[in-house]
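Bit of a strange request maybe. I'm writing a small parser for structure token strings and I need a real example to test against, not something I typed by hand. Could someone generate the tokens for this chain?
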Amino acid sequence: VQLVESGGGLVQPGGSLRLSCAASGFTFSAYGMNWYRQAPGKERELVASISSTGGTINYADSVKGRGTISRDNAKNMVYLQMSSLKPEDTAVYYCATSVRGGVWGQGTQVTVSS
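Reply from user aminoacidic:
Good idea to test on real output. This should exercise your parser:
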């Protein structure tokens, strides 16, 4: 079971970014997927979640209206599109799922700075 995030980087305030998470080793279409983030010195925060079919989606208040989670079950991929980025969005972003008691990717760094 493996989750591999990509797409992070340095972006200016107000910019946009799309994070990707490639899943392998399990029946991707049977599991909900989550995006978390952790900023230095802060607790890990659940940013967005999507059900196995994509029919149920939830967002943290901190990203509501600026974030869009989506998935492609044919490609075993989950995405997080972020727009109107703010410096406080700076964090390591992780995708995670509940398979086998919980599996996390290695994370991808997002830095929002001018």
